[in-house]
Design a protein that fits this description.
The protein is mainly beta and 314 residues long. The protein is built from three helices and 21 strands. The strands form three sheets. A nine-stranded antiparallel β-sheet has the order 6-7-8-9-21-18-17-12-15. Strands 5, 10, 11, 13, 14, 16, 19 and 20 form an eight-stranded antiparallel β-sheet that branches. The structure holds 6-O-phosphono-beta-D-glucopyranose. This is glucose-6-phosphate 1-epimerase.
């Protein structure tokens, strides 16, 4: 089964957890675990890993994998009565062999469709019936696309409400050499200050301490510039108005069991999300949330790059 040319391959990952490997013809690849519907790897054409996964990540039932792209559903963080970040990230998803068609053409060769439905146990925790379809696709240039389609399948006529995030951990060379552009001057809720609302200053965001902020109603494009790696990540998102920026820094890193003490230096979470205005679906209604990630070489040195060009370029 392990031919370089197979665009989609089912394989065993850590602890024999099942994973799907996507390969694009020019050499980029991605890996998706059925555990959590969780993308754990995204590599460019040169085989360089673009996502951060902790060396201490636990691949255990009922436990989210530390790194990659956990899916937060039906609750972001502790914004509600459910477990932190909801349960979708630690449930076992299935391969969706016959997903409903997409109106737009998103069918690159290297893609996989997964589905999550609630178990009887899940319904005791969150008393709703739904179908959560996730498509993970690698574009021809190595872009990574995730599309979520969540449908209310309640038969009791009841709507449900949820919050959501793609909790993406980007791999960065050194957090103190990184800046985020596209969130300047926006309002945010600061998770480190009782979710109080503040307004960001005019400058690009840089990192010198713990950060845990929910930026509200952001542009659809956000850029992460890694000065040392000379790489820029561009996040494009649809249906996901908010963006969380998280780095635990040194003290909190030590308190997270499945995270190395110094690993905060090499990761940054920028999470396309719908948090401030929760999504409500009536029975039969469907919501979509899309995130597309690309990594481009940047010849950035201080003051040289025009942020507008990064954000406005296609
Ligand atoms: O440790 P967890 O549950 O994966 O969460 C990690 C972080 O995830 C971020 O999205 C939250 O804003 C943080 O508050 C949280 O600490």
């Amino acid at each position: 089964m392990s031919s370089e040319r197979v665009p989609v391959e089912l394989s065993k990952g850590v602890n024999s957890f099942e994973k799907i490997i996507l390969r694009e013809i020019r050499g980029s690849s991605a890996e998706v675990y059925l555990h959590g519907g969780h993308v754990t790897s995204w590599k460019n054409e040169n085989g360089e890993e673009l996502l951060f996964v902790s060396s201490k990540a636990l691949f255990k039932p009922q436990k989210a994998i530390r790194g990659g792209i956990p899916i937060c559903f039906p609750q972001f963080s502790n914004h509600g009565p459910l477990e932190q970040h909801g349960f979708a990230r630690n449930r076992i998803w299935s391969i969706d062999t016959d997903p409903p068609a997409f109106p737009t053409n998103s069918s690159s060769k290297a893609h996989i469709d997964l589905i999550l439905r609630p178990s009887e146990e899940d319904i005791k925790i969150w008393p709703h019936s739904y179908e959560f379809r996730l498509r993970v696709a690698l574009g021809p240039g190595g872009d990574l696309m995730l599309i979520s389609r969540i449908r209310n399948t309640n038969t009791d006529g009841k709507p449900f409400t949820f919050t959501f995030a793609y909790h993406t951990y980007f791999s960065v060379s050194d957090i103190s050499e990184v800046r985020v552009e596209g969130l300047e001057t926006l309002d945010y809720l600061d998770n480190l200050q009782n979710k109080e609302r503040f307004t960001e200053q005019g400058d690009a965001i840089t990192f010198e301490t713990e950060v845990d902020k929910i930026y509200l109603s952001t542009p659809t494009k956000i850029a992460i510039l890694d000065h040392e790696k000379k790489r820029t990540f561009v996040i494009r998102k649809d249906g996901l108005p908010d963006a969380v920026v998280w780095n635990p820094w040194d003290k909190k890193a030590k308190a997270i069991v499945d995270f190395g003490d110094d690993e905060y230096k090499h990761m940054l979470c920028v999470e396309a999300a719908a948090i401030e205005k929760p999504i409500t679906l009536k029975p039969g209604e469907e919501w979509r949330g899309r995130q597309e990630l690309s990594a481009v070489a940047s010849s950035y040195c201080s003051g040289q790059l025009d942020p507008q060009r990064v954000l406005q370029g296609s």
